[in-house]
Structures are given as structure tokens and as C-alpha cells.
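Sequence, please.
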């Protein structure tokens, strides 16, 4: 698999090892990877770590040879960073997938499962939900790169006649997520008594899935991979759609901090109002989320409270510079200094 040192990837690595798989983890160890996410895993069989780039054709080609399954979790994923620096998203998220597709088409024994996102559909007006065949309508460089990656998967599977699975998932949350994302950012800043920069009116809705429920979905998906050539899209959504302000207030309550920390700031450009997946396909195959948001968010906030050593504590280095770039002016406008 690729991207196993990231948030979702690290949960997937642990779960596959627990289920008895041999796992090779190709990860470039970018800022979003955290080797501490896999503390205690490996270093030897059945786990192998390879530090390298998903865009390195000869490395990827060699690794895919002899594999049964290729899981692609390597990606640049943060919408705000894609607005600041889009080029790296095209490279990792699109060129990386093309590199994997080239390797997979040369190794017909290797099944490809590619991680995508509900964001490829853009914003959906209620009561719309995205079906597997809803057209793409991305509105950030990040979601456009993921849509482009999916089109590459579609083109390769059509041209070369092999099957591949694309997983479109809603927002996943839980332990080990990078602090730049909404829930970890607000949680850790709430602990520190820092302002929580809520974009715009805070009424944007996201569909939240606890990471263990994603992992259970993945296991079902890989256990029942289709053999017919072409791309097979699977939607993994919790159905729990909440406005950002409600999530921010829940975090304040769990962190025992006042909601006055919530600081409305200038909106994200092109900010999608609402994501919503129709995941009846996977549910009809026997999957359902087991952890409701109330429970998952409590577990998550408690994990961050107890594991500063894993997530790194106060922002330093590249992350501190990113926070200043992303939030400095927004919070300064409100008269509140950045972290
Ligand atoms: P995020 O975790 O970046 O995921 P995505 O944009 O991929 O859904 O953001 C989740 C929501 O939280 C999104 O509507 C943007 C909002 N948000 C804020 O209001 N403030 C923030 O500082 C961040 C990072 C996100």
C-alpha cells in the first residue's frame, strides 16, 4: 500500500496486519506522514516499510511485481494547502496514480483499490446525495486533482481492460489525524485556549465517519473485489451530516472550554457548502457504521488529550509557518494574534 504513515493509512496498516496480511508500506514521509502513527509496527515481516515516492516509476514498478493488492492512500489531502500550493497536488494525486496504474497494468495479478473522496462531486444542495454515477464538479485544486486521478483510473481500466475499485469516502476523523484538519486543529487549539478559526458562517455541512468504521468498510471492499474490467466506485458515508459550528461547539464541550473560543474568520475560497454521499450500495453488501458521531468525537478528543507525544504538542517548524500563512491575517483582522 501507499501512504501508510498518514492518518487513514496508518489505521489501515494496523488493521491489515491484525488480520494476518503481509503489508509493504510505500510512504514518502512528507509533512503529513507521521512515523509515530506506526510506533511498534515492524520493522520486519509481515511488515515492510519503503521510504519513497509514489511518482518513482521504477520503484513502484518493482514493488507492485508479485503483489495481489495495491491500496493507494498516498495523497496530498488538505484543501487549504491546495489553494496555497496546487502543483504538489497534481504531482502526488494525479501523477502518482498514473505511476501506479502503469505498474498495475503490467502486473495483472495486482488488484488496484484507489482512495478518492466525496469532494469530487462539489457542493450538493439538500436533499441531493451523490450516487456512484453523479458527475464530478470539483471546486478546489485538491478535489480537482482527485477527480483527475479517478479519470485516469477510468481511462486505464477501459483501455487495458482490468478492474479497479475507487472508494469515495466522506470526511473521516479519529486518532492520528494531522493537526491541520478541522477536528484535530480545533481540538488541540481548544486545549491550549487558542481561538478556533471557523470559516464563514460555519453552516457548511460535512458527513463525518469514524476511522474504525472506514477500516471495516475497506476490509469488506477488499474481501469482495469485482473481477469485471472497468472502474468500480464504492461510496462510504456515515449519513451523519453536521454543520461545522455544531462540531466546533461539541469539541469545546468535550475539551471543557467556552464556545467563545470559536472565532468566525474569512471564508475559504470556493468553500463547498455541503457534501452528502448515497452509500446504499455498500450498506446493501452488509456494511454499516458502528460508531455514532457523539461517541467517535468523544473518543477522538480524549485521544488528543492523552497523546500529545504522538501528535507533537505545540505547533513548531513547518506547521507553525503554515498556520501563520493560513490564519495569521484572518485572525489578525479579528484582533486576535495567531498561534
Ligand atoms: P477540513 O478538515 O479541511 O476537511 P474538508 O475541507 O476536506 O472537508 O475541513 C472540514 C470543514 O471545516 C470544512 O467545511 C472547512 C471547515 N474548517 C474551518 O471552518 N476552519 C478551519 O480552520 C478548517 C481547517 C476547516
Amino acid at each position: 500500500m501507499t501512504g501508510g504513515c498518514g492518518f487513514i493509512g496508518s489505521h489501515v496498516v494496523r488493521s491489515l496486519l491484525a488480520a494476518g496480511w503481509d503489508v509493504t508500506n510505500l510512504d514518502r514521509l512528507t509533512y503529513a506522514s507521521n512515523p509515530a502513527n506506526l510506533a511498534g509496527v515492524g520493522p520486519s515481516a509481515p511488515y515492510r516499510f519503503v521510504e519513497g515516492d509514489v511518482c518513482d516509476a521504477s520503484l513502484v514498478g518493482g514493488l507492485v511485481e508479485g503483489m495481489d493488492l495495491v491500496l493507494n492512500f498516498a495523497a496530498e489531502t488538505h484543501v487549504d494547502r491546495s489553494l496555497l500550493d496546487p502543483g504538489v497536488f497534481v504531482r502526488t494525486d494525479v501523477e502518482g496514480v498514473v505511476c501506479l496504474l502503469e505498474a498495475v497494468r503490467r502486473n495483472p495479478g495486482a488488484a488496484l483499490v484507489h482512495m478518492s473522496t466525496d469532494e469530487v462531486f462539489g457542493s450538493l444542495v439538500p436533499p441531493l446525495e451523490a450516487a456512484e454515477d453523479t458527475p464530478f464538479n470539483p471546486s478546489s485544486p485538491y478535489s480537482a486533482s482527485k477527480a483527475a486521478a479517478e479519470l485516469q483510473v477510468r481511462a486505464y481500466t477501459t483501455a487495458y481492460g482490468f478492474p479497479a475499485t475507487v472508494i469515495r469516502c466522506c470526511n473521516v476523523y479519529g486518532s492520528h489525524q494531522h493537526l491541520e484538519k478541522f477536528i484535530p486543529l480545533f481540538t488541540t487549539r481548544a486545549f491550549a485556549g487558542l481561538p478556533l478559526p471557523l470559516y464563514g458562517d460555519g453552516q457548511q455541512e460535512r458527513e463525518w465517519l469514524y476511522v474504525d468504521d472506514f477500516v471495516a468498510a475497506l476490509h469488506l471492499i477488499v474481501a469482495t473485489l469485482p473481477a469485471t474490467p472497468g472502474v468500480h466506485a464504492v461510496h462510504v458515508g456515515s449519513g451523519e451530516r453536521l454543520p461545522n459550528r455544531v462540531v466546533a461547539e461539541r469539541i469545546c464541550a468535550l475539551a471543557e472550554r467556552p464556545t467563545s473560543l470559536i472565532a468566525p474568520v474569512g471564508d475559504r475560497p470556493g468553500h463547498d457548502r455541503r457534501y452528502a454521499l448515497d452509500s446504499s450500495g455498500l450498506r446493501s453488501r452488509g456494511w454499516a457504521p458502528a460508531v455514532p458521531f457523539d461517541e467517535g468525537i468523544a473518543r477522538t478528543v480524549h485521544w488528543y488529550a492523552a497523546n500529545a507525544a504522538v501528535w507533537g504538542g505545540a505547533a513548531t517548524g513547518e506547521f507553525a509557518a503554515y498556520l501563520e500563512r493560513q490564519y495569521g491575517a484572518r485572525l489578525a483582522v479579528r484582533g486576535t494574534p495567531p498561534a
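The chain has twelve helices and eleven strands.
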